[in-house]
Design brief:
Largest sheet: 3 strands, antiparallel
Mean pLDDT: 88
Radius of gyration: 17 Å
Low-confidence stretches: none
CATH topology: Ybab, Chain: A
CATH architecture: 2-Layer Sandwich
Shape: elongated
Number of domains: 1
Distance between the termini: 14 Å
Strand order of the largest sheet: 1-2-3
Helix content: 55-70%
Strand content: 15-25%
Number of strands: 3
Length: 85
């Protein structure tokens, strides 16, 4: 029982740490920042791009930032020893 409580406390600490993680990706003058909760925190657009170019670059930035932050968080969990919780 106490081991479960310790694991829950460790998960809470990791969740708090994840909130502090950020990933920024830039493509064609467009920038997107995603945090460890998978929330888009910041978007900077390039007004010189046509709408379709901007939409595609934005989509690529969001997808890449999300993948990168997921990989980083997975590494953090594996390093903590609670990946199998």
């Amino acid at each position: 029982m106490f081991d479960d409580i310790k694991k829950i406390q460790e998960l809470k600490r990791m969740q708090d740490a994840f909130k502090q993680e950020h990933e920024t990706v830039q493509k064609r003058g467009i920038s997107v920042t995603v945090n460890g909760n998978m929330e888009v925190e910041k978007i900077a657009l390039n007004p010189a791009l046509e709408i379709r170019e901007a939409e595609e670059a934005l989509r690529q930035c969001i997808n890449e930032a999300s993948k990168n932050i997921q990989k980083r968080l997975a590494k953090m969990m594996m390093g903590s020893g609670i990946g199998g919780f």
